[in-house]
Sequence to fold (444 residues):
Amino acid sequence: MDASSLADRLARAGLDAPAAQAKAAMFARLAEHLAKHAGISPARAMAFFVPGRVEVLGKHTDYAGGSTLVMAVDRGFCLLVHPRSDNQVRLFNVAQNEQACCAIDPDLSPQMGHWMNYPRTVVRRLARNFPQARCGADIAFLSDLPRSSGMSSSSAMIVAIYLALAAVNRIEQLPAYQHNIASQEDLAGYLGTIENGQTFGTLAGDRGVGTFGGSEDHTAILCSQPGRLSQYRYCPVRLERRIALPDDLRFLIAFSGAHAEKTGGARELYNRASLLAQQAAQAWRQATGREDAHLAAALASAPDALQQLRRILADQPDLLQRFEHFYAESEQILPAAGDALEQGDLAEFGKQVDRSQDLTEQLLGNQVPQTVHLAHSARRLGALAASAFGAGFGGSVWALARQADADALLQAWEQDYRAAFPADAAHACFFATRPGPAAMRISD
Fold:
């Protein structure tokens, strides 16, 4: 498929024209690299696009059974994939001109601190869950997602490697797959467990990558629709509603340049929020004798569950604070903001998002000065709404603007940030996007 045809196909799938042309150029670069370094004709390769995501609302709610409002962005991973005749998975990181290889082996060791740890985690889990899947692949990839930006580049890589190996091994035809996975939402839930190490149905868990997150990222990447925000609830994954974004609105994205790493001390901070939610649910189970798996189930268990939870957690301030954030974000702010957006009440939508940002700073405590500044400066400069998103401790902020104002606002926002944080701004990235399409296989 030539670049023009590829760009047309991507545009028909829901990417805007400039983004589609940019991806076509990335695929051309991948094809050249495979031909030069692996002797593979691009005509014999499969092509995939796997987007990043923006969490509009739903900060640290998914792993506690809560709701999130998400969308795919028009940036992500482009892959060319060619099956091998052995069990080796050879990856070509074209941007860094690096090559790495591993066998499809259930005893594959992790490679902590290196980008290859994510592919190796996928390969090891698939080898354990699907013993028949032993066909390797040559995989060349490029990404235009800023690394460690909060746009789920790590989860996008996990989805990308899974899709590549699932295609060459026809995993969807295997009995174990068909027994456990009946929908894209199920697949998103399974890929979330590859990352966090949990078991999914009869598909036994593994060590994961060391983060205790949920499946929000994988759901947004696999299940989004162009032009729409998707509201999902988790544990298990289920769609609550889709909200069409008016054509005259754009999301502006600012990566702060402060990396939201999920390694070392940053990973411990991220995991602490998850552990506190787990401990609050455990306190509920001990006090009530119930078996509710998470905070959302506890809240739904009885008409007075909210009051009971507050009494049970009253003498444990860290757990009470974590619960109060979860309850406000998932059960109050998110549904009210979604209703406002559906009704075209952008003032109310902005008000609810402001509350989410304030509580994130006050209760969740996962913000850094750079993201706090970006959220508040976007509103001061005229954004209809603005919020930090993702795991936190660095990362990005989204702002909503009318199309007529988007370019000027994006420029002013970037200039303001460069004046306030010149060192971080050297690594920052500002761009506009509409809600984009989910991960897709483009061609054989």
